[in-house]
Prior knowledge:
Blueprint: E1 2-4, E2 8-13, E3 16-21, E4 26-30, H1 32-42, H2 47-57, H3 62-78, E5 82-84
Antiparallel strand pairs: 1-5, 2-3, 3-4
Amino acid sequence: MLKLNxxxxxxxxxxxxxxxxxxxxxxxxxxxxxxRIWQMxxxxxxxxxxxxxxxxxxxxxxxxxxxxxxDFIDMLIEYGxxxxx
Length: 85
């Protein structure tokens, strides 16, 4: 299960989300795609459901969707915005 780091701040600006980790001073600006995934993580959606949701939206691009989501989640973990429990 993906969990939010409680020491981050975030906010939406239009279709984008800004993230800031106060522990390590890492920041990220998420585009609309990243914001949708972030919202799902924030709501407690499990990884499998996140993948399924986007594969259903983009069935012809399944391998790219899987790769993009994996890379995005790995970046969120690397920057300390989320962690796996």
